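Sample pair:
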Amino acid sequence: MINLLPPDVKDGYRFARRNVVLRKWVMLFAAALVGLGIITTYALFTLQQSTNNYDRQIAVTQALFKKEDFNGTQQQVQDISNSFKLVVKVLSKEVLFSQLIKQIGASMPDNAVLTGLNINQTQGGIDITAEATDYKTATQVQVNLSDPANKIFSRADIENIKCEGINDPPYHCQITMRALFTNNNPFLFINSKAAKP
């Protein structure tokens, strides 16, 4: 079919069709913007509610910590722990002398006697004084006390042996030693069976 309409009318129809299409696109774009605005508003509202909920939970937790005195309780637990460590430290150095003297007496060779025990200021050590009938027996005292089988001392060093001027028959020699306890010494309170549950 041949269109015999004047060119102005033809142009008017063409622009009218374009306007209708353009109007549809503008309406779709406006609807999309409104939808996007609704979604954004809902997301912001939800985010604000979550933030408020978390703030309330934090406030409740902090109030609970204040009520329960968490820091004070933690300090009390630390104080108890420090006290327990101090007790263990003190008891680890406490010597059970009644058992220790028996074991030292059993370790003494024949013709030798224990005459003195002194706790020295060095950690884990003791000064021992003994008398013996002769020099050989005096040195045997040191050998016996440093014997690992006795489980008393890790080492026993002779400080002095004096065999002249001792007027206490039958003992003519006096020996002075310094001994260091072994770490697993059963004569320390912390290592004794009484200290273990």
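The beta strands are 112-119, 125-132, 153-162, 173-181.
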